[in-house]
Amino acid sequence: NIPSNANGGPRALNQDFTFDRFVVGRCNEFAYAASKALAIVGQFPCSSLFIVAKTGLGKSHLSQATAHALLESNPRINVIYITAEDFANEMVAALRQGNMPQFKEKFRRQCDTLLLEGIHFLSGKDKIQSELCYTLDFLADQNKKLVFTSPYLPAEIPLLRQELISRLSGGVITPISPPDFSTRVKILNSKASEHQVRVPQEVIEHLATYLTQDVRQMTSALDNVLHKA
Hints:
Helix 4 packs across helix 5 (126-141) and helix 7 crosses helix 8 (201-210). By secondary structure, the chain is α/β, with parallel strands linked by helices. The protein is built from nine helices and five strands; from the N terminus they run αβαβααβαβαβααα.
């Protein structure tokens, strides 16, 4: 059994978000390959990965799949999976309670891998951005692994300090685009398989033709069709 979050962060990992359950297509194959390489020692050219994608396209899935793979290879490492909002709230609480040394200890010395979701939430939060810069510098100096996600490229996020933009842009940046028709078909077939039901191919292709926004939309529609059937 893999620990949900290996002692770090308030958010547990989704046990379904693994590499084995990620449907790969032309829209996401580089992001998938980069995430998997980051999780394998010696396979990635740098220590940080920034995944850019709109909501529902799989950036959280790949981020958490990376964490699962790292923990599977070494269950003793400390992987912190946290949203930027929770990071900010935790820092504000630490400042109010005089617990900043403990906060720094957790996110620097006790952290082997930091997965920070929704980095755009830090827009305009100057003091938190400054602290994050110091934290990222410390982790980078220790060759720790870093994964960031956002719907926007670092330079597109308003009111973000230039030094933080520089640090977020220092590794591999990979986008995930909306799935094409063939990938949508693969995703719907995969979801049907998970439900252990056989859905006629013409139904799958009909859904794939009209549901083009994101994976959540397709999953919800397929669930509704199955319930009505």
